[in-house]
């Protein structure tokens, strides 16, 4: 799927977790960094393709993207597996632990989980596409849902743009509407300065 859909899916998943499993307290800085980490996590698996947003925005990014893509085994390979999820989870944790001293008001556990939720949502969304996802690498089988390939979504076609994307928006509206009271409570009690 395209980056826009992945970002929306990531933030949707994060919103659901934030509302249904609220933290005891969270600083505003934590929320901002967590959302950022979540969006980065949401597009991280696609650094294995030269057209990834990260590479597109760098001057010689396309070249880097190609080299990186080969290193990671090509598109929809290592970064689209539980093994990749674990490695990126480990590296992100190292990075956050390293950065903790300069962001003392940020809860790095929440930021780390937000990144992981974003990355996991990417793999789940890609599972609905024709190519499928090699969840269990090194077992080289790509899994998809529904199991019948023809019923799955083709990336960047009208189904993704006009069905999947709007459905995610509708889900968000429904979800926040249904949990309106809880959200007000969260805004009043959980967010500390
Ligand atoms: Zn992907």
Report mean pLDDT, rounded to a whole number: 90
Nearest-angstrom radius of gyration? 18 Å
Which ligands occur here? Answer: zinc ion
What topology, given as strand order, has the largest sheet? 1-2
Intertermini distance = 37 Å
Order of helices and strands: HEHHHHHHHE
Helix content: 55-70%
Described by the principal axes of the CA atoms, the overall outline is globular
Low-confidence stretches: none
Beta fraction: under 5%
**Tally of strands:** 2
Count of separate DSSP helical elements: 8
Structural class: mainly alpha
Biggest pleated sheet: 2 strands, parallel
Number of domains: 1
Please outline the helices and strands.
Blueprint: H1 3-20, E1 26-27, H2 28-43, H3 53-56, H4 61-71, H5 82-99, H6 108-127, H7 158-178, H8 180-189, E2 191-192
The structure holds zinc ion.
Zinc ion (ZN) binds near residues 45, 46, 80 and 122.
